[in-house]
Amino acid sequence: MSPHSIFRVAIHTLFSIATTILLYLISLGPIPQHVGFVMDGNRRYARIAGKQVSAGHADGFTALKRTLEICLRLRIRAVSVYAFAIDNFNRSENEVSALMRLAKERLIELCQHGELLEEYGVKIKFVGRIDMFPQDVRQAVRDMEEMTKHHKNGVLNVCGPYASRDEITTAMRDTVQAVYDGKLSSSEITSSHIFDELGTSKAVSQVDTGLLSRPQDAKKLDILVRTSDVKRLSDFMMWQASDDTQLHFVKTYWPEFGLSDMIPVLLGWQQKMWMRRLGVV
């Protein structure tokens, strides 16, 4: 092995050890149950890096795997990501086609190399208007969900094609249908019934409640992170983020998002929890 290769291996080993130590120290404090990510900035990242837009989205998928592993190692039980907005279908035909190809390729890759989800026992659930995907992408979605359907240790909600208003409308429609089917009395309907019918809520409810520190709050978002320094929700989990969710808008483009961005987010949330326990807030 050349000196250069030895140096690279040594740096990689040191980084791995440092990462393990950092995650262990963070795990000693309170850990959020549900974290959401608006994965923004793929196109701007690609433009600045002189890459094709499709390459920016591909690097964004790598960032998702990297971030998901951090969350899983910390035993964050629910992760929700904004993968594809319904409005994204208004983009150019070439970009939408590229995104559909990438989605299919990466889903197949996950099916073939699902060690991360298998290792941590995490279910993958797609939330949104799946019927808007091409047939081959829909099949890849079904295959991925089938592969992890028995996992109970956590859930990855992949939201797309998704809009929060559509999710809420669907939940209301399902609640009304339950009344028509005689499963629920109209006089018993409360906002909690509708909230529980949200696609993300139903997915989180399938996690083993014995692993949750606050089962009653698991369907709500503890933390919402949006990258690329854009400060808006963009129709993502608006109901789930309306009650005590800590919002973080970071400047990093999503393909470059990693541990150095995630640590301040987690420490900020832990600080809030400690202050709350001390009665400061």
Automatic annotation (TrEMBL):
Entry-linked SUPFAM superfamilies: Undecaprenyl diphosphate synthase
Under InterPro entries, the record lists: UPP_synth-like, UPP_synth-like_sf
Annotated organism of origin: Kwoniella heveanensis BCC8398
Molecular function (GO) terms listed?
Answer: ditrans,polycis-polyprenyl diphosphate synthase [(2E,6E)-farnesyl diphosphate specific] activity
Supply the name of the protein: Alkyl transferase
List the PANTHER family hit by this protein, alphabetically. DEHYDRODOLICHYL DIPHOSPHATE SYNTHASE COMPLEX SUBUNIT DHDDS (PTHR10291:SF43), DEHYDRODOLICHYL DIPHOSPHATE SYNTHASE FAMILY MEMBER (PTHR10291)
Entry keywords, A to Z = Magnesium, Membrane, Transferase, Transmembrane, Transmembrane helix
Q: Where does the sequence pass through the membrane?
A: 6-26
> Pfam families from the xrefs?
Prenyltransf
Write out the GO biological process terms: polyprenol biosynthetic process
Tell me which GO cellular component terms the UniProt record holds: dehydrodolichyl diphosphate synthase complex; endoplasmic reticulum; lipid droplet; membrane
Similarity section: Belongs to the UPP synthase family.
Give the EC number.
Answer: 2.5.1.-
